[in-house]
UniProtKB/TrEMBL annotation:
Residues 15-75 form the HTH tetR-type domain. This is TetR family transcriptional regulator. GO terms for molecular function: DNA binding. InterPro entries: Homeodomain-like_sf, HTH_TetR, Tet_transcr_reg_TetR-rel_C_sf. PROSITE patterns: HTH_TETR_2 (PS50977). Transmembrane segments: none annotated. It comes from Streptomyces brasiliensis. Keywords: DNA-binding, Transcription, Transcription regulation. Gene3D superfamilies: Tetracycline Repressor, domain 2. Residues 38-57 bind DNA. It comes from the Bacteria. SUPFAM superfamilies: Homeodomain-like, Tetracyclin repressor-like, C-terminal domain.
Length: 211
């Protein structure tokens, strides 16, 4: 398990407490899970009092939800917003291993982790995780449409399922399954998008024209 460091002493109050709490939550939730992390331990790692923690987050549930919001607020902008790549290349880039991935590539997607650990389907974090996964599939579908896919909705759902499956299998086995997932994605894309299909242009507002 990665050693978790406490925040600097003498910074219990004032600016930076919120960031330290979120950093501690990210590390602890990743290393030992959401349900196994209590507020006492989280406050100790963040070097804040419980009073300060509850000034920033009214409950652990609110902290979990904000933790998820911080993970990927733009829905993979490092992939989908890259102007230097063609739409087909952006689809493939979704399966490239992030430069910030943990050693061994064993970190589970935090949205999947929250959905697994939190049983209440109406919990704000569960709702956020569900909406995030829908947004990933939507962006994959939009990019597949730009690339000229015959059935962009189907390809988007296939690639979204592949991303999530690779994340879970990597965490379960403790081995890097990204190269295998990338190979499968390339095959799916090759069959779904004719090589001669021209990318569909966006309009001046950045939207795809309606058929």
């Amino acid at each position: 398990m990665t050693e978790l460091h406490k925040g600097p002493r003498g910074q219990r109050r004032g600016r930076g407490a919120r960031e330290r709490i979120l950093d501690a939550a990210q590390n602890l939730f990743r290393e030992q899970g959401i349900n196994n992390t209590g507020m006492n331990q989280l406050c100790e790692v963040a070097n804040v009092s419980k009073h300060t923690a509850y000034q920033h987050f009214t409950s652990k549930d609110e902290l979990i939800t904000e933790h998820l919001r911080q993970q990927d607020p733009g829905t993979m902008p490092e992939v989908f917003d890259r102007a230097d790549l063609t739409p087909r290349e952006r689809l493939l880039a979704a399966f490239e291993k992030p430069a910030t991935s943990t050693p061994g590539g064993t970190r589970l997607c935090p949205f999947i982790e929250a959905a697994v650990e939190i049983t209440d389907p109406e919990h704000p974090a569960r709702i956020l995780a569900r909406e995030y996964k829908k947004s990933v599939a939507a962006r994959l579908t939009e990019t597949a449409r730009e690339a000229g896919a015959v059935d962009p909705e189907l390809l988007g759902e296939q690639l979204a399922l592949l991303l999530d499956g690779a994340s879970v299998r990597t965490r379960t086995l403790g081995t890097d399954t990204d190269p295998t997932a990338a190979g499968i994605a390339a095959t799916l894309i090759e069959h779904a998008i004719p090589e001669t299909a021209p990318p569909r242009p966006r309009d001046s507002a950045g939207e795809m024209p309606r058929a």
